[in-house]
């Protein structure tokens, strides 16, 4: 069973997505990731986008640690239901509606956040968490990263979780990797707008 590690809702259990269609982030990786993000002091008051959210545990952890707005994006019906359950739990504990769930394809949701006609994003985010399915092709990931780069705040951070066997993502010219770290079978990549 997954849980919220720290913050205002720390210790609360989270529902998991049934079956093996999703791959939950291990507690070890989650603790290391959030230790790093807290040391950079980027979560307090942040607007967070959690793509391929699964159970929503990463985005929900940011809410517990002080993010002011968290959007969980997921398309699988079972995972959406779990995201909604977990979002309701953390919102009740925090006594706010910090976490919302948006059902849909990640690229379509990203397209909706960016108005191509005016060239102005309708939403901007300070932190983007991505845990795409490992089979997602590198070309598809590159297209998604290009779309993400258009809705980022100036000093935003993008975090991608991939298999340790996956190659480094192909970064668009508008994003630059500034760190990465392997944890067993998991590789985290960190990038920022340039």
UniProtKB/TrEMBL annotation:
Pfam families (UniProt xref): Cons_hypoth95
SUPFAM superfamilies with a match to the protein in the record: S-adenosyl-L-methionine-dependent methyltransferases
Keywords: Methyltransferase, Transferase
Classification via NCBIfam families: 16S rRNA (guanine(966)-N(2))-methyltransferase RsmD (TIGR00095)
Listed PANTHER family: METHYLTRANSFERASE
UniProt-recorded name of the protein: Site-specific DNA-methyltransferase (Adenine specific)
Organism: Glutamicibacter arilaitensis (strain DSM 16368 / CIP 108037 / IAM 15318 / JCM 13566 / NCIMB 14258 / Re117)
């Amino acid at each position: 069973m997954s849980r919220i590690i720290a913050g205002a809702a720390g210790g609360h259990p989270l529902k998991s997505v049934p079956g093996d269609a999703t791959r939950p982030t291990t507690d070890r990786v989650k603790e290391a990731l959030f230790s790093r993000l807290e040391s950079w002091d980027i979560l307090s008051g942040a607007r967070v986008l959690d793509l391929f959210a699964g159970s929503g545990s990463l985005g929900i952890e940011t809410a517990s640690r002080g993010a002011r707005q968290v959007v969980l994006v997921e398309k699988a019906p079972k995972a959406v239901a779990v995201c909604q359950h977990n979002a309701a739990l953390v919102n009740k504990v925090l006594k706010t509606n910090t976490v919302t769930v948006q059902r849909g394809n990640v690229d379509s949701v990203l397209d909706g956040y960016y108005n191509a006609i005016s060239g102005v994003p309708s939403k901007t985010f300070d932190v983007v968490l991505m845990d795409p399915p490992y089979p997602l092709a590198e070309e598809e990931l590159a297209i998604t990263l290009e779309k993400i780069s258009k809705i980022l705040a100036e000093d935003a951070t993008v975090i991608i979780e991939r298999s340790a066997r996956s190659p480094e993502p192909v970064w668009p010219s508008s994003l630059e990797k500034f760190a990465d770290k392997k944890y067993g079978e998991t590789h985290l990549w960190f990038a920022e707008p340039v």
